[in-house]
Amino acid sequence: MAVTFIGVRHHSPACARLVARTIDELQPAYVLIEGPADLNPRLDELLLGHELPVAVFTSYRDEERRHASWAPLCDYSPEWVALTRGRAVDAQVRFIDLPAWHPAFAGVGNRYADAELRYAEVLERLCREFGVDNVDVLWDHLVEIAPADDLAERLVTYFDLVRGETAADEGDSAREAYMAQWVAAAAQAGGDEPVVVVTGGFHRPALVAALARAGSGGDEPQDPGPSAGSSSPPWPDIPALPTHAHGGSYLVPYSFRRLDAFDGYQSGMPSPAYYQALWEYGPHGAARHLSEAVTTRLRERKQTVSTADLIAARTTAEALAMVRGHTHPARTDVLDGLASALVNEALDVPLPWTSRSPLGSGNHPVVVEMIAALSGSRVGRLHPDTPAPALVHDLEAELERENLAGSANHELDLTREHDARRSRLLHRVRLLGIPGFHRERGPSTGLDPQLHEHWQVRVHPDRLAAAIEAGAYGATLTDAAAAALTERAVTAGSDVDKLARVLFDAALAGLSTVLDDALQEVDRAVGRVPELAPLGQLLAVVLTMWRHDRVFGTAHTTALSTVIAAAVRRILWLVEGVHGGPQPADRGRIGALVACRDALRHAGTTLKLDREDALRIVGRVAANSAVPPDLRGASFGFEWSFAAVGDPERVVRGAFQPATAGDWLAGLFALAREEVLHTEAVLTLLDERITGMDAHEFLVALPALRQAFEFFPPRERAQLAERLLARRGHHGDARALLRGVNDPERVAVGMALDQRVDARLRREGLIVQEVRP
Amino acid sequence: MEAVEVTAPAEQVQRPRAEVRYEQELARLKADDQAARPPGWALSVQAARRFIVGDQKLDVSRKFVGDPSLIERALVTLATSRGLMLVGEPGTAKSLLSELLAAAVSGDSTLTIQGGAATTEDQIRYSWNYALLVSEGPSQRSLVPAPLLRGMAEGRTVRFEEITRCPLEVQDCLLSPLSDRVLAIPELTGPGSMVFARDGFNIIATANTRDRGVNDMSSALKRRFNFETVFPIADLGTELALVEEEATKLLQRSGVTAAPNRGVTEVLVTAFRELRSGQTARGDAMERLSAVMSTAEAVSVAHAVGLRGWFLRGEPGTAEDLVACLAGTAAKDSPEDLAKLRRYLSQQVTWRSGDHWKALHSARHQLPG
User: Fold this and answer.
1) A417 FRET partner, CA 20 to 30 A, in A155, A432, B90, B139?
2) Residues A193 and A294 in one domain
């Protein structure tokens, strides 16, 4: 038997070249590749003629776990080269690894991640020994840029060293044992014919050892007779999907950007566009290509890249290559050179290629463009004949049925059953993250009386890929959307803001089944919320759903009741903790008190919320001068709206200070608009006080006052204006008065001008009396 | 009046310069150096790199903790026609790195200009011996060269510390030495009036990102430098080891025989890292301190903690000492920082296990104010 093992790093052009050379030389009978064995009957699907990169997407779902994983393939993947070259020399090509849904892959999102990264210690030692920043630099140094002469031996040495005595974890051991079965079977079947095995370098030592053990083991007297090659070999069984589980593997179009976005243990080789260039043009061409791409991108974005800079960058790159012992500048040599020449200020975060982390925030714009140029924008495309999962068909059918598939704008009236159904459908599609479905307008919090939605549907190039991947959530649109929503609720954890959106999305998509699970989380999270605003938003949403069963089908359910009670408790607790004196009015925290009041008013009796206790708390807040004015005003409004105030006029008189009046009133109006409107004495008092402000005070208070009075709808503002006119003995059209303040800035500028003119006239002795009343 | 003895024997010098401290290592590297040297350099680029990142074979210690690629870029820059600008937060060992680079490249780290608000061109380029100037007129004899002139004439590395502390017009006197590699002395006539830089001359400047905006560099000067940002140490283990090692050294010099307590040092380094980055180990976001929480500061706190424990009670420093010392270093005179520190000690310490964290929590009342 002649088994040649090639241990590769996934997505390594140098390894891909080695694979191609080996297969061409040996003309093997069998080519075994690390890849999902359940795809063996469907290998032709891979070879339909796609534009790479594409990926095999596998999903799995049962009661306990849900798993999705990708096996991305690009032009320079050793696995892809093995597949195509193997076919070209008429070898039998087989994928020999466990299916991606197998428990051995639990937690693995990228089949072609670097397995050795999980065993970091030895790699760190190697990097220190070679004096390089990280594994990628080491790899370029040892493999990609180094001469190809003795690459095979170098790879063996490298991976033997990396694997060393390390025992693989349970998942890797299971996979290696399974792959070893295939190798043994092929070795037997191949007889004297060569067999080529292409796997991750980390697994190679284990497979070599396993084959040696099998060869010298008990079944020694095997006769590789002349018939052995032709008879059907005892190939290992391909594990079948458990009966209670849903899942499957499909091809999806992939992109360089996604290939580059894997993180941590899931990551493989970075910078696909660079390695594509390395595959196509070799090291020298790739370096040139890289600097060109970076320069073009920067110049497109109007960044200065002078010829002097480019000369400096080139010189530095060449010098670095020399210092580091490279015959051609490697990836990081070019990048370091460009960074030295082009970045002339302090960086906020380290250069991303010195550590193996994905691009975070705070990077220098030039560095961001450099990384984008390395990453590339290539997007794969599937051949039209490629099969697709059930969800894709269900989605297409549903969209066709409701006539929503094509690019169009839709105006939906949620009170009509037909439109409501279409809306729910569109929301479910949106929840699955399928691009091209955008709601421009519509109810956004459950609080606004908005009952129309405006949707913009576009046929997006990624619709198919997204739909195939969303197929992991379920076979039908309803199941899939519900599963996606549950997942969001679980991952939202204690983020109440996110949970509120989950709840509302559930209502919009008509998926109330998901609510019960999600709400347990909300209840626990509420007790830990540090801020009023998001909590207020949550309470408002939940309360609306609790009350308006007709639209959402979420009548007085106990789960919602628990949340309401918890939120009311927490809001009252937090309100009392806000201190810090005068601050501008904050609509968010005022909103929290509004929601809390509404909850007490509409659900108080049913849910046995303690109104007296609440009133005692807001009473304390309203009287505390360390509390910001908006909250004091709101607390007072809270009391007043429950008619728990003896003499409102007296309180208003006491609280009205010109500097903070606007903010205080904003709080008051938000909670007790009606009461203010119907208390003549308070209106009169406010009129007096505002008229009594001097010009400067008024200018300072104006923005806040405007904000405060915006709580009144136009009709009520007109009423107010009428009364003001009446108080002054006029009976004109009050609406004209409102239109007059259309441009308050201009009015304010005019007033300031008047005042300056007055001041100057007085100074020059041209007038002696105050002009203003 | 007795004359002041100004030359101290080498062993009594508080901090010998790098080329003296590492004389042996430099000699070994030089003897072993096979690679080609850039013109005017004392070592090849590879040997200079090994001097800084360390080399076990030649028993050369690792002197700078950070990415090796940073050192390579810095050395390559020094071999080109651009100056090297090291920028970063205070306390990230920029000055140490600049000293090591100068020692490796030129074998001499003493041509140093300390930037400051009062730095003048005289201190950078040259000045005159006024007695001679008056009696003889301008001449080579009456000329007093400052580091820049000497570096250019002798082909050596000039260090310019805290360049952004200098006024803009003073910084700009570097323009022609950096681009044309020439310095004019208009007072002299003849060949001495132009000093052309010899091979081996270059400038290493350091600047503090906290000073950003104080005296921003002109873009003309920026173009003549390659910028390298030096970052705080990324890895807890590395920083901890460094702080422990340096603090032990300092304590020994101060006559303290007790080594710093490892648990206390770990608490200290962790707290410093969290206050610096504004994020706790479990991921809570919090406010950063505005004070500098650098590794160098951590070392000095560890030193102070050790001194306190030893001279007050005769034992290694404890978490209580740490709290007492933190107020002085971390909060300095900023009441906001003190408040942030108090909030950190009362809320972000309780959830951790370990006796030292518990002791830290219970000692939080020792913060002044």
Assistant:
1) A432
2) no
Q: What is the pLDDT of residues B86-117, one digit of tens each?
A: 998 888 888 999 999 999 999 989 999 998 88
Residue B144 has φ and ψ, to the nearest 5°, of -110, 105
Residues A295 and A238 in one domain: no
pLDDT at A231 over 50: no
Chain A residues within 8 Å of chain B (Cβ atoms): 131-133, 137, 308, 312, 315-316, 319-320, 323-324, 332, 336, 339-341, 343-347, 349-350, 354-355
Cα–Cα distance for residue pair B262/B266, rounded to 1 Å: 6
Q: What is the pLDDT of residues B157-195, one digit of tens each?
A: 999 999 988 888 888 889 889 888 999 898 888 888 888
- Are A417 and A491 found together in one domain? yes
Residues A65 and A186 in one domain: yes
Determine the structural domain holding residue A367 and report its residue range. Answer: 272-375
Structure tokens at A706: 């405007």
Is the ipTM higher than 0.85? The answer is no
Is the CB of B82 less than 8 angstroms away from the CB of A312?
yes
Residues in chain A with CB shorter than 8 Å from the CB of B230 are none
Regions of chain B short of the pLDDT cut 70: 1-3, 10, 212-215, 282-287, 346-347, 350, 369
Tally of structural domains, chain A: 3
- Decide if A323 and B72 are in contact by the 8 Å CB cutoff: yes
Helix intervals (H) in chain B: 18-21, 23-32, 45-53, 68-79, 94-106, 121-124, 130-136, 147-154, 168-171, 175-179, 219-223, 236-253, 262-277, 295-313, 319-326, 335-347, 355-362
The C-alpha of A184 sits at a distance from chain B's nearest C-alpha, in angstroms, of 45
Verify whether the Cβ–Cβ distance A341 to B80 is below 8 Å: no
A670 lies in some domain: no
A interface test, pick of B226, B276, B336 with most A CB neighbours within 10 Å: B226
**CB-CB: which of B68, B73, B225 is closest to A344?**
B225
Co-location of A343 and A408 in the same domain:
no
The reply to whether residue B80 touches residue A354, judged by beta carbons under 8 angstroms, is no
Q: Do A340 and B88 touch (CB under 8 A)?
A: no
CB A577 within 8 A of CB A624: no
Among A575, A592, A627, the domain boundary falls at A575
One domain for residues A307 and A421: no
CB A366 within 8 A of CB A342: yes
- Asked whether residue A672 is domain-assigned, the answer is no
Q: What is the pLDDT of residue A380?
A: 83
**Same domain (yes/no): A11, A85:** yes
Largest CA distance in chain B: 76
Strand partners, A92: A30
**A420 and A365 share a domain?**
no
Share the mean pLDDT of chain B: 86
The percent of residues in chain B predicted with pLDDT above 90, rounded, is 23
CA-to-CA dists, residue B314 to A90, A677, B248, B250, B254, angstroms: 82, 75, 16, 17, 14
Judged by CB atoms closer than 8 Å, whether chains meet at A320 and B76 is answered as yes
CA dihedral A523→A529→A533→A537, nearest 10 degrees, is: -10
The answer to whether B234 faces chain A, any CB pair under 8 Å, is: yes
d(C-alpha B66, C-alpha A273), whole Å: 28
Give the number of C-alpha atoms closer than 13 A to the C-alpha of residue B11, restricted to the C-beta side: 0
Q: Do B67 and A350 touch (CB under 8 A)?
A: yes
Is residue B244 within 8 A of residue B105, CB to CB? The reply is no
Continuous segment of H or E residues that includes residue A438: strand A437-441
Domain membership flag for residue A21:
yes
What's the confidence (pLDDT) of residue B169? Answer: 86
Q: How far is A363 from chain B (nearest CA, A)?
A: 12
Cβ distance A324 to B72 less than 8 Å, yes or no, reads yes
| DSSP one-letter string for A646-706 | S-HHHHHHHH--TTTHHHHHHHHHHHHHHHHHT-HHHHHHHHHHHHHS-HHHHHHHHHHHH
